[in-house]
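Case study 2.
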Amino acid sequence: MADVTIEAVSAVVGQIYEAAYDQERWLGAVTGLRDLFGGSRSCIVRVSLQTLDAVASDLDPELNSQKGIEAMLRDPLAAASAALPLGTVNRWPPTSDEPAYHSRELWQDWLRPRDMHRGLVCNLFAFNGAHWLLDVNRGVRHEAFGAEDIDLLQKIVPHVLRAGQIGRQLEKTSALASAFSHLPFGVFLVNGHQQIAHMNEAAEAMLARPDSPLTLSECSIVAANPRDTQELQRLVIDACSLRDGAMPGAGGTVLVPSDRQRSDLARLVLSVAPFIDARAYGLASERCAVIMVTEVARRIAGGFETHIRGLFDLTPAEARLATALASGQSLKEITAGLDITVKTGRTYLERIFAKTGTRQQSELVALLKSTEPLSGRGR
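Prediction:
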């Protein structure tokens, strides 16, 4: 190999870590690797049984077309690359397979015309039947990769692996932070093992409550009842079931605790749904799930009267009556407490029905309760 300076290696490693914090910079990183090794092309490829995608140093719409992708997936080496150990640099194709490889369609019609004669590859990451492969190629006029090239790339690969880990974590964290940080109900972003990538302020407050049926165990959400933990795990796995060419699971809803005898604990409704695909090396990787938490059968929170007054354009008197109804009081109890007649209370109620689009007290109470978010603050 040509002389490579420490400055040149440091510059490429810097590009790799820049890409960890900005997924769009992986293009610059793979281009830097191509130039560092004097190659013809370089890329990071995501390969599964059904699909292939890449961040490549050279723009090539034909190679990235459906026809080109199908040709690559048909070649036996596409499946064989999944068996390569993670983090280890290998010559590609293997010497033992090279004669057969050169006789096949992929080489003859697609790679040889693009001067992709010799390669070094390394598996970076595997998830849900897909793997991410780093590939550096040299052309026919370049010297073959030697032991020094392999040694240098092997020294750089740990930085690529670490940058990928940082990037995946940041993707999940920033997605929730930007979307859910200020919502007044609890939101958790988790992976398929219920491990929390991020949670908003209301979720933190819920976990801190002494009557919470949810706790943390080794960064994973655990319910007070083991059966509830198992059911939550089932819903999370379903919501995280990313498969190429198939819709993810729908998730679902669970009431925690399911044991009605646990009157010492708050009762929470946990709604689990697919959320995002975190990215690895600029390409989609694992599905995350979002868990949204609301509380049932609890007292009316402070500020609820102001909340519904603004939401439905109620007068102060109407908002006081509506709040009392939502807290479970009868109209007779409310009018006595407000020192108004039952007739006046019914007049207020008719106005509230008109403003909320409801027709009876039970419907009104259900509507009001459904608008009440879990703030978690001041508990």
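The first helix runs from residue 6 to 21.
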